[in-house]
Structure formats: C-alpha cells, structure tokens
Amino acid sequence: EAQVTQNPRYLITVTGKKLTVTCSQNMNHEYMSWYRQDPGLGLRQIYYSMNVEVTDKGDVPEGYKVSRKEKRNFPLILESPSPNQTSLYFCASSLSAGEGYTFGSGTRLTVV
Amino acid sequence: AQRVTQPEKLLSVFKGAPVELKCNYSYSGSPELFWYVQYSRQRLQLLLRHISRESIKGFTADLNKGETSFHLKKPFAQEEDSAMYYCAGGTSYGKLTFGQGTILTVHP
Predict the structure, then answer these.
(1) Over its length of 108 residues, how does chain B's per-residue pLDDT go in tens digits?
(2) Using the beta-carbon criterion (under 8 Å), do B97 and A45 form an inter-chain contact?
(3) Cα angle, residue B17 at apex, residues B15 and B22 outer, rounded to 5°
(4) A31–B97: do the CB atoms touch at under 8 Å?
(5) Which residues of B touch A35 (CB under 8 A)?
(6) Would you call B92 an interface residue with chain A, using a CB distance cutoff of 8 Å?
(7) CB-based burial, B57-87: b 16+ in 10 Å, e otherwise
(8) Is residue B96 within 8 angstroms of chain A, CB to CB?
C-alpha cells in the first residue's frame, strides 16, 4: 500500500531532551515536507525537500532540523525541545510540486 | 510573501444546499493551488488540484486569476462533507502555504 509512515504516533518528552520523529514513504516521491498543526493557526510548513541532500526552510523552521540522506526517509529532529513545540506534526510526500502532497497520520508531540 | 486566506473559519449549511468555501491567494508568479480535506480524527487528504480541473466527491474549484481566488464549490452538500477544509498554495520547488482552514458543518 502506498503510504507515508510516521513514528511515533504519540510522544511525551521533557524540555531539552533531543528527539527524532521518523518519516518514510514508499512511493519513490521526490518531494517531502514537514508541517505542524496548531489550533487557530492551521498548518504551517517547517521544512521541505526537493530531493536527496536538498532541503529548505518553510515558514516555521526555528528549533527544528531535517536531513534527506535517502529518498524515502525525511526525519524531523528537535535538538532541544521546548513547550512551544507541543503540536501535531505531519510528514508528507509528493511526486512533483503540482501533484499535491500525500500526508502521514500525524505525530502528537507534547513537551513538558 | 506568499499568502493564502480563507476568510471563513466556520460555515454551516443544510443538507442539499449549495456550499462555497472561499480562498484567496497572494503570490508572485503562478502558484500551484490545492484544496485539502481533513475529516474528524483522520489525516489530510488531497481533494482537488487546480491543474487537473477535476471534480472529486462533487466538489469543483475554479481558479480566477483576476480575483486571485480559488473557491471550492458543491451544488448539493451532504452530511458526510462535514470536515475541515484547507486551501493551499505551492511553488514549483515544494514550498506549500496553507490557509487557516474552514470548518464546514452540514446539518441534516
């Protein structure tokens, strides 16, 4: 089944403890992206990637890192999480910019 | 700066009534435009792309470059259409900006 898989689905962590949210797609898509969804603010793009080793900042990149060493994987790294990063995170992939993104199921992160 | 605006946070209609969800954009150049839908407790799903001019689940969206709008329409709303709808604009290199979303409620 063609899909975008994120892990974990739920995560509670403490301030300052580094964490990684993994994202993998099995559709051989070129583009991948991370978003956060917050009440009243909608979805905001954190980082996106056009291909392996090519990444760029979205609208809210502060406090996040990404890497694209392989085409199928696009992990999101929070080196020092803070409570304002408590959010619902979505990974997505797309064959091309005009095709539209396919989204994962989301990761609900709580930083205490 | 790229900007997508959905002026209505909430929209309520009765079953069988027409529905229009508004979306306006501000972009330099020609953006890729999309509508996404998020049903309760589910992931976002792509509903429409402006380049395909298709109709999905009875919904259509017309790009009006003069008014910089991409409104989503359905002539007869169904209860199962109740969801959060997001308009989004993208660039050719993958940057995507979402509007704040409109919660559509279709009453029986």
Answers:
(1) 789 999 999 999 999 999 999 999 998 778 899 999 999 888 899 999 888 777 889 999 988 989 999 999 999 999 999 999 999 998 888 889 999 999 999 999
(2) yes
(3) 115
(4) no
(5) 98
(6) yes
(7) eebebebeeeebbbbbebeebeeebbbbbbb
(8) yes
